[in-house]
Amino acid sequence: MNSNSTQKPCDTCGTAVSTYDGVYFTQGDTRRFLCTRCYNETISEAIGLDFEHLSFHPIILADKDGENHTFHFQTRLLGDKVSIQALEIKNNAPKGYEFSTHGDAEDDLFDLFTKLVERMRRELKQKHIESGDLTRYSITDEDIVRGHITWDDDTDGEVPCLVIDGKELSWHEFGRMLMAYEGFHFKLEIFEGDEER
Q: d(Cα 2, Cα 153) in Å, to the nearest integer?
């Protein structure tokens, strides 16, 4: 997973923000880096929408094993829709769990945020992998694995990195875990990050 994060000044307001908390914005031949607030203001002005940007403070939530995870939030206006994304931050970079929710741009952002945090609490109470005997991790007795797919720097994106229970696993490592089920059948279901299944 590409975890390099640096501080960069917003080309509009000058505020230095982490690169994961900004957007590279192209207008014509001009490419600018905007903090999330300035990006949302630019989009709302362009489409004539009265949108009030809300920033949410980071929170710490514990998983099923009692391990704490720190989440930062991004609110992004996407035309007439809005997205709130929760990114787990480790060593000043997104790494681990990732959650999101979407709604209409005119929805109450605090309500969307509250629903997102409730979902995060539910999902953090689930456990899909545990320490293994022959591999670093093995699939729990429930035989269900949920996670998200991300870029793997080690393979230059040829195969994905999987984040399961907030832990990064290579495609090869996940394949080795599946070998405990040789001869079994499986169902792979892929869905948007704002869905809960």
A: 6
